[in-house]
Write a structure and sequence with these properties.
The protein has 195 residues and is mostly helical. The chain has one domain (2-194). It is built from eight helices and no strands. It has helices at residues 2-25, 38-42, 58-62, 65-83, 95-118, 121-146, 154-177, 180-194. Helix 1 runs antiparallel to helix 4, helix 6 packs across helix 7 and helix 6 packs parallel to helix 8 (180-194). The longest helix has 26 residues, at 121-146. The radius of gyration is 18 Å and the shape is globular. The protein starts with a helix and ends with a helix.
Length: 195
């Protein structure tokens, strides 16, 4: 496990260097022409906006690297689980589901960083979709844990993942139709039921 943690940290440090470089090279004009998020006009995110900078909110942008770190770590665990599956740990028998969770963390990292860097409407949609992707994948993991004794074929597992990706993509539009104040509690309640 220590090897996976060190590798995740090194990859995250590399991503930090890339983000710092982008923030130094580019300026805020890159976001010109994109519609500003309404929440950026009315909600304070505990940091002053610097519209002249590439990262309008640097601290909020860089803080998303924790999601990147966790995503890389979970993807590595999924890779290890794929090599050595264990009956004692049910999720180890479905490494694609773990990998999806890892990719969702990475997606949230980039989506939320995109939002805090640009404060645009499009980036807020991606940020929210990243949040929903994690919630939906956790719900899927909860469902799997209830029914893990059902022996799914590898093809069935791939169909499950494809269905989850389709649902996550559908939520890009769904969350515009239903308020987050309604949708997130429903998903959390469903997660709690299956957990």
């Amino acid at each position: 496990m220590q090897r996976l943690l060190i590798r995740s940290m090194l990859i995250t440090i590399l991503m930090l260097i890339i983000w710092i470089s982008l923030n130094q090279i580019l300026d805020g004009s890159i976001w010109d022409g994109m519609t500003l998020s309404k929440s950026a006009l009315t909600v304070e995110y505990c940091e002053f906006n610097h519209p002249d900078k590439f990262f309008h909110q640097s601290v909020n942008t860089y803080s998303n690297l924790i999601y990147f770190f966790l995503g890389v770590l979970i993807c590595q665990i999924a890779w290890e689980d794929n090599k050595c599956r264990s009956l004692q740990y049910p999720l180890a028998n479905f490494p694609l589901l773990s990998a999806l969770m890892g990719f969702c963390f990475i997606y949230l990292s980039f989506g939320s960083a995109f939002f805090h860097a640009s404060l645009t409407w499009a980036s807020q949609r991606v940020d929210m979709n990243g949040t929903y992707s994690i919630t939906l994948t956790l719900l899927s993991i909860g469902i799997y844990h209830v029914f893990y004794k059902i022996n799914l074929t590898e093809r069935a597992k791939k169909v499950w993942i494809a269905l989850m990706v389709a649902i996550i993509l559908a939520f890009y539009k769904i969350h515009l139709l239903i308020s987050s104040a309604v949708l997130i509690p429903i998903l959390i309640l469903m997660m709690l039921i299956f957990i």
